[in-house]
Structure formats: structure tokens, C-alpha cells
Amino acid sequence: MLAGAEGSASIQLRKWQPDAAYARRLREADDDRRYAVYLDERPGHLDSTAFFLDAADVFFEKGQAELAVRILSNLAEMDLENRHILRILAYRLNQAGETRLALPLLQRVRDLAPEEPQSWRDLGLALAAVGQPRAALDALWETVSRPWDERFADIDLIALAELNALVARNPGLDTGAVDRRLLRNLPLDLRAVLAWDSDNTDMDLWVIDPNGEKTYYGQPQSYQGGRLSRDFTAGYGPEAFSLKTARPGRYEVRVQFYGQRQQVLSPYTTVMLRLTTGFGRPGQKDEDIVLRLAEAKDDVLVGSFEIGKRP
Q1: Alpha-carbon distance 148 to 130, whole Å?
Q2: Which residues have C-beta within 8 Å of that of residue 74, sequence separation ≥ 6?
């Protein structure tokens, strides 16, 4: 039950539908012909991460999850040493509920880029999701306790909140390695966390509450008590929105592609957003969405929270 609204809470994700010609062709194909259409399109897109992501999205949408996962596996085959591609693949598998398949990919990312705190945080969250809280605690504590490059400032605070939520949901978990002064769970009604795949890229998280007030980098605190973490302008995020007590109504979650100074893989940046209700409580519920933004200044509605009125 929510602390403030004492009513129901639900998460709605905006359906992401790629509009490339090959994606339309795949959507229009009969179920028994769709994979043949994919094989026909694939030779012209072997170096395109977008193609495999889009194709998999269509197969997931049509209820052909096994084929969708097979298509996504092509991303790993593109370059097993490219942490950007591996992150994208892991995020998409997480969204599809295939976290056990994502786990070895995130372990590989951690090995390739141990100097990036996102590598440890992503791994810790995946370990928690597959029921390995002890290993998850270790990875999140690594994110919290190690000194990082200044451009990653405050990611330790985001990971610390996640570490404490993990401990709260797993009574009896051995926390001997953690500084006990930092062990304090701060449960939230609503939480939204944005991460992305491209270095030197600035993505921005916006939340518009039922009062119409927008919490964003220019106004990181709202009248209702919403709070946005530090604005990441170079790196992979994350940026987190937190609200302890949610009043009834609709909370829009949006992402703005603010700008970039470098693009590694394609003209697109892939973003992953996790929306959470009851953060740090036994009934915590997470929903992930992965989508691509094409141009700087794009502003996209990603999802929303719906908070019911007091019964």
C-alpha cells in the first residue's frame, strides 16, 4: 500500500513501435511467415543494432518470444568485446523478463569496463532480480564504496538506495561488508530511473505530476516532494526521480534527448527506463522499457504512474 495515497498504484508503459520499413513488413507478415521475412531482411542490416532490436520487438509484440530472443542473440555475435552492444542486449533481455540470459552479458560488461560504475550497478540489479541477493549486495556495494571519475558523481547515492532496498526485502542478509552508518532504508511510493547506452551523451528525465508541475534538471525538486538526482551530462546515467508520498493522479514520465558529443554505434541512443512502485517495500514492483531516440531535442512520453484515490 502506498504511504500517501493509500490506494492502488499501477504502471503504464507507452508501447514502443519502430517505424522502419522492415519493421512494418515484419508486423504485417503472417505468424508462420514472419521469420522468413526477417531472414530476407537480415543480410542488408548485419551491422545494425537497430535492426535486430526492432525485429525482436515485433516478434515479442506478436507473442513469438522464443524467436525474438534468437534474433537478439545476433547482437552478442556482432562484437563480444563491445560493452555498448552487450549493455543494449542485456537491457532488452531484462525488459523481456529474460534476466537469467542477461546476467552473463552483464558479467562480461563488468569485466570489460570495471572502471565504469554502471557496470557494477547493472550487474547488482540483475543479480537481485534472479534471486542472488548476497552477490547483488557485493556488486552494489562496489558501486557505492569505490572512488569513481568525477563525471560519474552521485551514482553512488542511487546505488546506495538500491542496496538498502535490497536489504529491506531480504531479512537476514549478511551486511557485514557494508558500512553500518549507511544502512538505512528509505522507502518510496514512486521511483523512475533512466540509463542509456552511449558515452558523452546527455539524456534528461522529466516527471510531470498531477498538479502539472515538471520535475527536471532545471527544477530538481517539486512542491509535492519529488526529487531528481544530479543531471548526468556525459556518460550513461543513471538519473533517478524519487517521491516518498504520492498523491492520487497521473504522473507522466518523459525522456528528452538533450545532446551528444560522441556516437559510437549508430545515429540512435538506446535508453532504458525502470519505473517502480513501492520501492524498498515487500511489494516493490518494477517495469522496464527500452527504446531508441534518434535526434537531439527529442522529447518522448515513456510511461506513467496511475495512483488511485483513497478508498
Answers
A1: 27
A2: 52
d(CA 81, CA 98): 21
Q: Is the dihedral of CA 152, 157, 161, 167 positive or negative?
A: positive
* Cis amide prior to 43 (ω within 30 degrees): no
Q: What's the pLDDT score for residue 5?
A: 43
The residue type of 270 is T
CA-CA-CA-CA torsion sign (95, 100, 103, 104):
negative
Other Cβ atoms less than 10 A from the Cβ of 249: the count is 16
Element spanning 55, H or E: helix 49-61
pTM for the predicted model, two decimal places: 0.89
Yes or no: say if 205 and 239 are a contact pair by the CB < 8 Å rule: yes
Side-by-side strand order, sheet with 299-307:
9-13, 299-307, 249-260, 201-208, 214-215
For 3-18, how does the pLDDT look when each residue is reduced to its tens digit (9 = 90+)?
644 458 899 887 777 7
Report the amino acid identity of residue 80.
Answer: L
The residue type found at 136 is: A
**Domains of the chain and CATH, by start:** 9-307 (1.25.40.10)
For the stretch 222-241, pLDDT in tens is 999 999 998 877 667 899 99
Could you count the other beta carbons within 10 Å of the beta carbon of residue 210?
A: 16
Written as nine digits, the cell of 194 is 533512466
